[in-house]
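Input record (one chain):
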Amino acid sequence: MNRRVQVVLFRAMARKSFILKVQGVVDAIRNQLDDRLAIDCRAMDVFRWALGCLLVLEFGGRMMVVEGLLSDQGVFPFEIWQTFPHATWPWFSSILALSSSTLWVYICLCCGMVCSLMLISGKQLRWVPWVLLILLHSLQARNPWTNYAADKLLFLLLFWACFVFALQPDENSRATRWMGFPAWGLRLQLCVLYLFSVARKSGSTWVEGMAVRYALEIDQYSQPLGKWLLEGPMIWLQVLTWITLLVEWLGPLMLLARSVRIRWMGVASLALLQLGFLLTMDLGWFPWVCLLGLLPHVPFSHHKEGIKPLEMNHHAWGMSTRVAGWMVLWMLLWNLAMNFTYPDTLKSRLPSVLSRSIECLRMDQYWGMFSPNPMIHDGWFVIAATLSDGDVVDLLDPMRKEVWEKPHHVPATFPGDRWREFMMMLYDYPDQAHLWSLVAKWFQHRWEQAHPGHSGVTSMRVVYMMEKTLPEGVASPEKEQLWLEDPAGQGSSEPSDG
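The corresponding structure, as predicted from the sequence alone:
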């Protein structure tokens, strides 16, 4: 064997040795992460039950708003949906697009409730979560202006759960922990939400400890307890602001600790944070979905020295596991990029197929709740209807005698959080102001049904009572007219001071 052949063989052996060493390091790191990010089977069972219950309530709750928000008889009919310029997802990506019938919407919602009950019972876990994911996407795509952060988080938790359940062990398996990339995604999702959200809270109100005060001044969200806190000493609100920042920074890091005690501290601190949100602000499903996201982090081991190594699930590296691994990497890189840009800006630079795909999978994540500062402009809506006898009523809150006075509890003026979100989004997009006529007509119809034989409505207008929160207090509200019905029965969306 000549010297040249020897050199070639030596280099090949050295290259193979290097690759094996790198592979060994990668495997060691992956095993460490597997052990740290594994999900206890008991915690996963509780998560599955809670997820199923929340989905039952979600599909059932949407049934209450089908007529107004999800049908041709409501404010967002099929023909508007098909040409809507601000749709987050293509209308044809929803199975609700197969028919404009209201009955079809109810059928899909009933199917969602049935599949949710199957999820609770643990039946057919390999395919039922995927059916639920399709139904949930279809529901959210039907009227994108009724969705908020809780809906995206719920979809993502179900998305990661689909991969976890796809690795369902055999009935005879003695495995006690879920491991692999799907478990990583489910564990990391809530941590990503908190960490990247708090990283954006860099505004002056957070630094000065005034952010909680500004957040509680937002009328659409504030609860009675939140209003009571505003009447107390300012130092309370400053302390609550800094506690919120501290919990959102440290809580998710504690969730990733190996120590059982530290993980329980992380779960407890973040749960108390969401409990505080529930008591002081009306944020819809958001606190409940965040509490749901905490369940996979619950450690059931009682060993003080930390999580005792348990018998692990050794699953084959199938296609679903590889896909989940790439999705975890995408989630982390995307959220890092969002510190320097915005989702729409980055998506505009991507191929349209890729952009649409990450939108449908909710991987265009941007968690910016109350960042960099809570908003300072808020208020309430008034749908002022003049009756034939000359009286004026607010169709949103007919029991209120003084139409132009501030309601005692603004969130209660809306029929639900979906209506609140739709009207707030409609307010943010003046180019769609023509939809206010459908909103006004819907509430007129509801009022006439509740008051048969009463004086008829002769004219209507939609007004937003704008308030601005200032350092020294809240400014007097200003009327902003959003839509006016002219005598001929046609609507005008030209703004005026009203």
